[in-house]
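Record 1 of the preview.
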Amino acid sequence: MAPVLRIAAAGDLHASEDHRERLTDSFVEIADRAELVLLAGDLTTFGLPDEASVLADACRAAAPLPVVAVLGNHDHHSGRAEEVAATLRGAGVTVLERDHLILELGGIEVGVVGTKGFVGGFPGAELPDFGEPLLRAVYHETTEEVDAIEAGLEAISGCHRRIVLLHYAPVPETLVGEPETIWAFLGSSRLAAPIGAHRPDLVLHGHAHRGSYAGAIGDVPVHNVAVHVTGDDFAFFEL
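->
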């Protein structure tokens, strides 16, 4: 039988000192239930290094389990995202920002493409590349994210398992439950284009607290692993 990769995933942990005990306990509990931990952004409450240190300590409790993360909008809130990422990296967490990682886990070569993603909307209500410079800058920012996903998927194309880790949603299905009037601020269908072309094994995101758990891009499963959606500290997957 082919080996199976066990993954524990969560988004929107919103770490702070108030959550220290629960976070640490949750990471201890998964140490023997997974080979890989994936964190889908909003790792902190207000994007402060002190909050990141709480999560960093929790990740240390799960060592030597590899932890891979992307940042979310909360992690950028205070303008200290680089410090947040550095704090987590100091605990051995791989923080991907428009980048990819290839790991060897139990004889399986695993490729993870990680980036925050961004806004822009979905068919019927999408931001165009037209008009005022500020709006076109938003469009361009999403373009940079799309290009990073494309480049990352090309780089990991030979891996046995291929995963895309985001914060913002690439499909509207996992936003169902949120008011449709704000979907344009929760993700962008443009993020789905390279995923549909390369067909990785799994896509994970967070951000939409009142969204839905499951969606798809063609035959590629997409899951919203925000803890508010899963109702648990981690969601588990086998690939």
